């Protein structure tokens, strides 16, 4: 049986837990022997979208480029895990339409919690005016209206959030193989 490709798009504020949940989901998928690729917003900006700024137009172009690569991979049977702030709803919806097999995961945590988790000090710099156009401070984040999965990282454990994503993928027929021992009880 050939694996079905899908793009799982983790969106949320900086510090909400997108990468942390993505890593837990990725481990489970790889443990099942599935073909998985990761498109992390920070890494993509260093390579694929180098030179783009943080205007709305540049952010949208960044997401379109990530979406283009995700579409190519997922249509060829790969499970693509995207973790990117992707603050604007309209371009996320555009990617949903383009990709087709698309699961939006809203990694939701209050701004105050994200600021407490900020190991890089980005929120502090943004509040001090050292970083302009920072999502959640002086640039908007448009939360998804109807995400397939919502992870409330201020209220759930990492395991609970990852299990939500994996259970949805299973319900939709994207998961094959045996679950890893770490998630069998969930």
UniProtKB/TrEMBL annotation:
Its EC number is 2.7.1.25. GO terms for cellular component: cytoplasm. This is Adenylyl-sulfate kinase. Catalyzes the synthesis of activated sulfate. SUPFAM superfamilies: P-loop containing nucleoside triphosphate hydrolases (SSF52540). Residues 4-151 form the APS kinase domain. Belongs to the APS kinase family. The active site is at 86 (phosphoserine intermediate). It is an enzyme of class 2 (transferase). InterPro entries: APS (IPR002891), APS_kinase_dom (IPR059117), P-loop_NTPase (IPR027417), Sulf_AdTrans/APS_kinase (IPR050512). Pathway: Sulfur metabolism; hydrogen sulfide biosynthesis; sulfite from sulfate: step 2/3. The keyword ATP-binding applies. It comes from Thermoleptolyngbya oregonensis NK1-22. ATP binds at residues 12-19. One of its GO terms (molecular function) is sulfate adenylyltransferase (ATP) activity. NCBIfam families: apsK, PRK00889.1, PRK03846.1. The keyword ATP-binding applies.
């Amino acid at each position: 049986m050939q694996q079905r490709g899908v793009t799982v798009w983790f969106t949320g504020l900086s510090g909400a837990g997108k990468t942390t949940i993505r890593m837990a989901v990725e481990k489970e998928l790889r443990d099942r022997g599935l073909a998985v690729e990761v498109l992390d917003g920070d890494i993509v900006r260093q390579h694929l979208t180098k030179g783009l700024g943080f205007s709305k137009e540049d952010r949208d172009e960044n997401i379109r480029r990530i979406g283009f690569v995700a579409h190519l991979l997922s249509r060829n049977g790969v499970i693509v895990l995207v973790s990117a702030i992707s603050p604007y709803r309209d371009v996320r919806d555009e990617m949903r339409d383009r990709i087709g097999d698309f699961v939006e995961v809203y990694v939701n945590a209050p701004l105050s919690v994200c600021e407490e988790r900020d190991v890089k000090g980005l929120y502090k710099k943004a509040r001090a005016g050292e970083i302009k156009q920072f999502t959640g401070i002086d640039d908007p984040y448009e939360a998804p209206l109807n995400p397939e999965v919502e992870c409330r990282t201020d209220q759930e454990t990492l395991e609970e959030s990852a299990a939500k994503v994996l259970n949805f993928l299973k319900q939709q027929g994207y998961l094959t193989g045996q679950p890893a021992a770490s998630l069998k009880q969930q």
